Amino acid sequence: MASGNPLFNEKAYEEALCRTQRCEGIMTLQGTINKAFFLLFLCMTGGVLGFRHYQAWGAFLIPIALVCLALALTVIFTKKTAPLLAPFYALGEGLVLGMISASFSTLYDGIAGQAVTITLLVFLLMLFIYKTGLIRVTRGFSTGVIAATGAVALFYVGSLVLMFFGIHVSYFTENTTTNLIINIIICVIAALNFLLDFKFIDTLTSEVAVPKFMEWYAAFSLMVTLVWLYLDILRALGRSRSR
């Protein structure tokens, strides 16, 4: 079992396996999907609030983002807190995304609504593709997506390091055709990660017993891919509008 999402790994679930009869409820794929949609609803609610109150709350963008990071780290290292903290994380992340979207909307009218719509459609499409088996998540397919995701992560981290030292990175500052193509490729890679995530959860829940609270952790983990996809779709739409 493998996934491009670093929060989906065997060690994370091995720590919470039901090794005795004391587990109250067992994690299921459908339960995880249901909780993922609930977190998505909270994220969208926060997004609407952040978008509408961007002018008043814009100064709190970084503090809210730091709180979300703290919540995320707490959930990652203390998975039993996921049922309590994951909803607050989703709401806070929504506020951050809403304010970022509002800043984009000042330049490109209606771009936020388009980005939200496309992101949701891609998520539902990936879920449909997985459930119908239109794309088989084989070992080779998983390896390719993981390698591509790793390359994107290295690109982002490397770019941040270079910009920290004052070195210009054109991808984040110039709206060229090449950068738009790269942006679209990154969006495709992010979308394909959903297939690996669904496969990982499905395989895990069908072969081992994992307690019910891990559904919240898995749903929280899916949000990581969703946020990544949304931000890159937003950036791609901005680039296409500026041309």
Q: What global shape is seen?
A: globular
Which structural class should the secondary elements be placed in?
A: mainly alpha
| Count of strand segments | 0
The helix fraction, in percent, is over 70%
- Give Rg in angstroms: 18 Å
Distance between the termini: 42 Å
> β content, as a range?
under 5%
Low-confidence stretches: none
| Tally of contiguous helical segments | 9
Instruction: Give the H and E element order.
Output: HHHHHHHHH
Mean pLDDT: 86
Most strands sheet: none
Please summarize what this structure is.
The chain is mainly alpha-helical. The chain contains nine helices and no strands. Helix 7 crosses helix 8 (177-207).
Defining traits:
243 residues, mainly alpha, globular, 75% helix
What does this structure look like?
The chain has 243 residues and is mostly helical. 75% of the residues lie in helices and 0% in strands. It is built from 9 helices and no strands. It has helices at residues 10-14, 29-52, 54-57, 61-77, 82-105, 111-132, 139-164, 177-207, 214-242. Helix 6 crosses helix 9, helix 7 (139-164) crosses helix 8 and helix 8 runs antiparallel to helix 9. 35% of the residues are buried. The mean pLDDT is 86.
